Amino acid sequence: MTAPVQGSERRSRHAGARRGKHRGHEPADSFSRGFAALGELALSGVQVSARAIDLTSGAVLFSVDDHVVMPTASIGKVLLLIELAARLEARETSPLSLVDRTQSDAVADSGIWQHLAVPSLPLADLAALVGAASDNLATNVLLRRIGLESVRVRAERLGLKHTAMLDLVRDHRGPDDAPQLSVGSAKELTWLFSALARGEVVDAATSKRVVGWLSLNHDLSMVASAFGLDPLSHRGPDHGLLLMNKTGTDSGVRSEVGVLRGPGAGVAYAVSTSFDDTDLSSRLGVLDGMRAVGRDLLEYVH
Questions:
Q1: According to the model, what pLDDT value does residue 28 have?
Q2: Cα(273)–Cα(93) distance, rounded to whole angstroms?
Q3: What CATH number corresponds to the domain at position 63?
Q4: In the chain, which residues have pLDDT < 70?
Q5: Contact at 8 Å (CB) between 4 and 154?
Q6: Residue at 175 is within a domain
């Protein structure tokens, strides 16, 4: 088991070098295409934040405004999964504890529980739904059981200052609601996922639980669209590749953070974009840019 390390100490391992002229690290040659694609998006008015680090050395492979706090939509659900996993490992509750859904939890969009007849599910199954399908209803039920304040405290204990889950999932956000479900910086998110991969988030057993849930993720539509993996089944190595990731999607928001391992190397990466989602071509341009980063990541690990 890997002993836990204080968040500030762990983040210092990945402290960045001087920033380049694009307010980020100049990329290694193998990342120049993705760097250029994100630059083109920025010139077209898209707000971009990105970072990739070598999983073993912590070396920064490229970054673009990685300190900027961006809306990250469902990526904040990872913090909820971490808090739940920590409680399960501490035996504060059982993974088989049943939780009922209520009318106040109801929400549309992502997830499948809203389409199922079963009114109650075990905590571990709710976490699997969040990991696999970013299930909004399961998220709200877990938040009611765990508490948003507990998720906030856990994030602070991990040393996260610019990454947070701000609210439950809502169909509509009013003036009195948090403007985003979650926010985060690419720098902190790459640290968090690299720490999960090393078994250093809370402890090795907690990290392993979270990695297991995230490895179920079906959304490979952004950066991970370049990896050629089966969206519905990629928990084991496929052509030497192994992925865990979490995506966030909202109007004008596309964000992804993950860890990709390959025969030659491993990387932790985060790419977040905020844009005017007024026409399909704008959205497709953002996804093309994210895929370009994915192709560079694939080349680096393979």
A1: 53
A2: 37
A3: 3.40.710.10
A4: 1-29
A5: no
A6: yes
Q: Confirm whether 2 is domain-assigned.
A: no
Which range marks the domain in which residue 76 is found? 7-301
> Please, which residues have CB within 8 angstroms of residue 204's CB and are 6 or more apart in sequence?
1, 2
Virtual CA dihedral for 35, 58, 190, 267, nearest 10 degrees? 70
Count CB neighbours of 295 within 10 A: 17
Strand order in the sheet with 242-250: 60-64, 47-54, 266-274, 253-261, 242-250
Distance from the Cα of residue 88 to its chain's centroid? 21
Q: pLDDT tens across 187-230, in order?
A: 999 999 999 999 999 999 999 999 999 999 999 999 999 999 99
| Residue 116 backbone dihedrals phi, psi, to 5 degrees | -100, 155
Asked if the structure places residue 240 within a domain, the reply is: yes
Domain count, the chain: 1
Name the pTM for this structure: 0.89
Coil/strand/helix, residue 8: helix
Does residue 1 sit within a domain? no
Contact yes or no for 95/84 (Cβ under 8 A): no
**pLDDT, tens digit (0-9, with 9 covering 90-100), for 140-178:** 999 999 999 999 999 999 999 999 999 999 999 889 899
Tokens of residue 72, six digits:
């990250």
The Cα–Cα gap between 287 and 223 comes to 8
